[in-house]
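Write out this protein's structure.
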Amino acid sequence: MNKLETMDITIIAVLPVISIVLWFLAGYFEKVKSSRWRLCWLAPALITMLLTYIAGFDKLMIPAYLSAAVLLAGLLRPDIKSRRTASAAAAVLAIAALPACLFVKGYHTADYVKDFKKGFAAIKAHYVLSEHKQIDWDALYDKYLPRFEKANEEHDKVLNEIVWNKFCAEFHDLHVCYASDNENMKAANKRAGGNDYGLVITKLADGSFAAVQVDDSLKPLGIHNGTPVISWNGMSPDEADSLSELAEMQNYGDEDNADFYKGFFAAGTGGDTSEIVYLDDDGTEKRAELSKLSDDYYSRFEKAYDTINQGLNKGHMTVTKLNDTTAVLRVKTMSFDSVSEKDKHASMQNELRENILEMKSQGVRDIVIDIRENNGGSGTMVKAITQLFAPEGEQYYVTDAYWDSEKHTYISEGEGKWKTGSDVTFEGENILGDEGRIVLLVTAHSVSAADHLTHVMSSFDNTTVMGFTEPSGSAQGVTPTYLESGVFQFSESLMLNRDGSIFIDSGTDWQSENELDIKVPYDQKALKALFDDGEDYLMDQCLDYLANLER
């Protein structure tokens, strides 16, 4: 039950109670004969109006609304008979609204078609990467309108969430996204994920597939973390992905990141049983029929995803010593606090500077900046962090696109170039000194401002970008469109390189500008370290790299 439904149930519950109280008070007020007590019959209407204003009008609540209106008779007709008749009628009307609110499927559902048309009109008019990505708006509209019509016809808010996510994934831009509430998103992921058969299938660096997050019930079959998987229901795992709605909901800004997760969704597809072909520990090909353990593949998928990507996942803007010469700065989001935001993160920067200098006094020479799964945020925070580690002198960040205030648009100069405005620069401090080295640790969902940090710092000679995957490749400024069912946002503010080309985001080639300096192989060694030994494999690779680096 969502907040709006809870508010309506509150109205339905309160009105009969008030009606009963007023029924008894009618006799008392008959004796008292005071006109001021007449206002008691006005209170239910005022309370109902307030709660309805918060929850919104719904036609199924009309009996409850009439209940509050009927009680006004006690204000207009002060005799005991009229008041008690109104109280009884009001109680019956309020209770009559309860079955409809509890059991009618269309109760408090938005008009999903209207929402789609509003969101579509907004993104078509203002999406700044439309030319860069060569969006076929008519094809998208024709493809998705029937899907939203189905969700609307069935009053299915979970299906609406699924369809929005599929629509957003078409743009290969993580800034194109939709969200309603956490409960609905979880339900959508669960429905789209399919059945759980006791494992997740991942793609290794050599193109083969292996089982991970394996349930104990599969061990008698010889299936465990690392077991090579040949096929799933007669298809290769990456082919089986095409049957997964959850796979369709995934948004990747770069094709290489999409390829990393090929096969990750296959093991949720199937019916009551699914067939797996795999190699046992002796290298013998075997076939088994797996019965579904539950209808919730997403929970197993989520655990596997977190194991690969989250690392230690502790702290935010904390600097921790890893060994005698290396510390880690964990940045989980590009936001700090309200004070720092107002002073362009100067106070945050001062605190960070002090922490790093303290580490240096303890012998720390190098630092790993961990932005795995960083969900983005403030560009001024990117500048504040980057300034500390950048080489001394003026450093380049990004170029603003020229905005034509008369035409209310950015000016395209053709061939993928745009008219430029002013450059954004900053002064580097080189806080680590000439001997210090930086490793920037990323994942496919290091997004937005995390993409900015990667792009800017990757140009420094002292910085190496590492990970299983590149960062997301989504960098433009976003704006929200508020719909009845949720919030839809997309890239609306244009950012450029100095030559007028698009900053970071991929075009029709589905390749973003952000690249890895070192792509850590996701192989059997990595799999064992992550899923069997519980190690932070990527962090260990960073330390090995720094320890063996020629200086």
